[in-house]
Design goal:
There is one protein chain. The chain has 454 residues and is mainly alpha-helical. It has one domain: Growth Hormone, Chain: A, CATH 1.20.1250.20. Helix 16 runs antiparallel to helix 17. The longest helix has 40 residues.
Length: 454
């Protein structure tokens, strides 16, 4: 019986990993590309055409998160009520339509408005996707599944940066400037994939036609048992009390530091690379700049996968989250003193690897003590606070650059926030308010060595 269960478990997890995760990761890929497309447009014609200062560009990058934040929690509660399939598809088509309008933006005011509306349209997608995937696999498999999903984020830049460069080089296509062509090119896939998602996704294992009855029974039973155990040990945690829960707010502050680093790099790395010409006398065309922008993110994808694989084997430990935060916080300011383009990119690569190694493991923590609607609200709240960093990173980095004339002070600020995340994670762990992860083998001796390796 135990052997049969382990075979069914292995098969069920593998099917989720193969049939569901890549599609949701594709949605995330398009999501991240659409929200960061402005970082490629800025130094490649948009800033000049719209006469943007660094602070204005930073504000336009960051105002997205204000709209996102306003509807983050309500959107995730709506997903819980109406089902992920419908809600995620609706979100995707909405942001695709808004993204398309960037093709014809005419001035800085219109840019601000569209970036705000894009945030409103995208609200709830990321925490909704995290919650959706968490509802498909038991906790011992969650780190692996979320790592596979999170691979889409660094790969967005690995693939998306050169792609953006190619699109920008199509200057004059349809009578549009190259950066406008790029906005058009990244918007259309969101609409198409959003429509497909309506028909492709299933709301729960019980409704998945691609699972056998045995697989449905095992997944549903395992998830229901885990839900009851979590609810029993955290009876006081409801949607209402989530907002007064100290663990949720501490995790929100930790996530803030990670996201500050992520978007400071995401929005300004192409601009920093464009500045190599003035500092080092180098000359790169738009496509080459895209390739250079992609360099830190390919090692980051490997770091994410193998670090999370280790976390799945050992169980997610505090150091799986705190150590990358520490390394990232120390490395990012060093990039400014590297002395050459190659050395600068090498140090930034270490920072990118650190951020992406920590993020998927971080998201296994909230579901240790949150279930149901409380999980939807808690994950959305953590992501909401984190996205305040998305606004802050863009605006503050640009403002400090204008104020000081360089990126030295802004990058030290980035490092400081990431170091704070490391300190808070260790503090939270030592307080006993989160548990150290348990390896999958310890949770299921009969299934040891039988876990899916997608």
């Amino acid at each position: 019986m135990d052997t049969t269960q382990s075979v069914v478990e292995k098969s069920a997890i593998r099917k989720v990993a193969v049939r569901l995760v890549p599609f949701v990761a594709l949605m995330f890929f398009i999501n991240y590309l659409d929200r960061t497309a402005i970082s490629f447009a800025g130094p490649n014609g948009m800033n000049t055409d719209l006469a943007l200062s660094a602070a204005q560009f930073g504000f336009a990058s960051g105002v997205f998160f204000i709209g996102y934040i306003l509807l983050e929690v309500p959107s995730n509660l709506a997903l819980h009520k109406f089902g992920a399939r419908r809600w995620l598809a609706r979100i995707m088509v909405s942001w695709g339509i808004v993204s398309l309008l960037f093709t014809w933006v005419g001035n800085v005011e219109q840019l601000y408005v569209l970036r705000f509306i894009l945030g409103v349209a995208e609200a709830g997608f990321f925490p909704g996707a995290i919650l959706f995937l968490s509802l498909w696999v038991p906790s011992r498999h969650r780190s692996k599944i979320l790592a596979l999903f999170y691979l889409a984020q660094p790969l967005t830049t690995v693939i998306g940066a050169p792609l953006a460069g190619l699109l920008i080089q199509q200057d004059g296509l349809f009578g549009l400037a190259g950066w406008r062509v790029m906005f058009f090119g990244v918007a259309i896939p969101a609409i198409i994939v959003g429509i497909i998602a309506w028909f492709y996704l299933a709301d729960s294992p019980a409704k998945a036609k691609w699972l056998t009855q045995e697989e449905k029974t095992w997944l549903t039973g395992a998830l229901e048992t885990e839900k009851k155990e979590t609810a029993a040990s955290n009876k006081h945690v409801s949607v209402r009390t989530v907002f007064g829960n100290g663990r949720v707010w501490m995790l929100s502050a930790i996530y803030f530091g990670f996201i500050y680093g992520l978007y400071a790099l995401g929005f300004f790395l192409p601009t920093i690379i464009a500045g190599f010409e003035g500092i080092y006398g180098t000359k790169f065309d738009v496509f080459q700049k895209g390739l250079i922008t992609a360099i830190p993110y390919l090692p980051a994808a490997f770091a994410l996968y193998f670090w999370s694989k280790d976390a799945t084997k050992r169980g997610v430990k505090t150091w799986h989250i705190a150590l990358p935060a520490l390394i990232g916080g120390l490395s990012i300011p060093l990039a400014l003193f590297a002395g050459s383009p190659a050395a600068t990119i090498a140090v930034i690569t270490i920072t990118a690897m650190s951020i992406f190694a920590a993020l998927p493991n971080f998201w296994t923590v909230p579901t240790q003590f949150l279930t149901g609607a409380a999980a939807a609200a808690g994950i959305a709240l953590i992501n909401t606070i984190g996205n305040l960093a998305g606004f802050s990173a863009g605006y503050v980095t640009g403002w400090l650059k204008d104020l000081t004339g360089g990126y030295t002070v802004p990058m030290f600020v980035v490092g400081g926030f990431m170091l704070l995340s490391a300190i808070l994670m260790v503090t939270l762990s030592r307080s006993g308010k989160v548990s150290e992860g348990i390896p999958a083998e310890a949770l299921d001796p009969a299934g040891a060595g039988h876990h899916a390796e997608p």
